[in-house]
Amino acid sequence: MIKNWKAVLFDMDGTLIDSEWFYYKAWRAALKAYGFALGSELWLNELAGKTDGQAFEFLRSKHGFEANREEFFEQVRAHIAQQHEEETVPLMPGASDLIHFLHQREITMAVVTSSKREVAIYHLERNGIRHFFSVLVTRTDVQWPKPNPEPYLRCVQELGLAGEDCLVLEDSLTGTEAANSAGLTCFGVQSHESIRQMLNVDRSFDNLHEVREFLEKL
Predict the structure, then answer these.
(1) Are 123 and 89 in contact (CB under 8 A)?
(2) How does pLDDT run across 27-58, given as a tens digit for each residue?
(3) Listed residue (59, 61, 48, 98) closest to 198, CA to CA
(4) CA–CA separation, 47 vs 32, rounded Å?
(5) What mean pLDDT value characterizes the chain?
(6) Average pLDDT for 199-204
(7) What secondary structure does DSSP assign to the chain, as a single string?
(8) CA 112 and chain centroid, separation
(9) Is the CB of residue 146 less than 8 Å from the CB of residue 114?
(10) pLDDT over 80 (residue 1)
(11) Cα–Cα distances in Å, from 141 out to 103, 114, 115, 197, 218?
(12) How do residues 120-143 score in pLDDT, each as one tens digit?
């Protein structure tokens, strides 16, 4: 046990795996075909951490983006499939180090993500870390995804632990709101200072290396 925590619950995209730019490129390319220029600031500040449906609805309601939903997502999936042929989505800096540090101390680990189950399993297996996580809660498993607390409440329940036993690591406003609503201790892990300052978290870190160093001192 580290301090009072028996489990660490990882968000996946942008926290555990370096996928935000991977998906940004696919969305940017798909949106370009509709004459919509997607900037990285809009992506990181407003869309990262959301489900595809939430992101589409945000662009529609806040930016007047008009497109057939299914046709648009077909375009996004096509770009993602092409990118998978060309590159692997790597782990975030310090992820492997932190995972092994927690594993050696017999801290339970889980993943709570807004990605669909098959996508999450694909990324975790491709990076060789799926076996470290005893619980995986995805967009597929819940009725209400983040920022609703349901994904985190479900994870805590599946782990058979109390909320105070669990530490959450998140990188986005959507994810930190979900963790806070679930009443869990949440650390923000975000290299972009402008976003990091907006996160309502118990502690903030630049990267997972810093998280490991902090936990090691406890």
Answers:
(1) yes
(2) 999 999 999 999 999 998 899 899 999 999 99
(3) 48
(4) 16
(5) 96
(6) 97
(7) -BTTBSEEEE--BTTTB--HHHHHHHHHHHHHTTT----HHHIIIIITTS-HHHHHHHHHHHH-----HHHHHHHHHHHHHHHHHH---PBPTTHHHHHHHHHHTT-EEEEE-SS-HHHHHHHHHHTT-GGG-SEEE-GGG-SS-TTSSHHHHHHHHHHT--GGGEEEEE-SHHHHHHHHHTT-EEEEE-S-HHHHTT---SEEESSHHHHHHHHHH-
(8) 7
(9) yes
(10) no
(11) 25, 10, 10, 31, 34
(12) 999 999 999 999 999 999 999 999
- The amino acid that residue 48 corresponds to is A
Q: What is the longest distance spanned by two Cα atoms in the chain? A: 52
- Structure token digits, residue 214: 């902090």
The span from the CA of 145 to the CA of 37, in Å, is: 27
Q: Report the C-alpha gap between 6 and 15 in whole angstroms.
A: 20
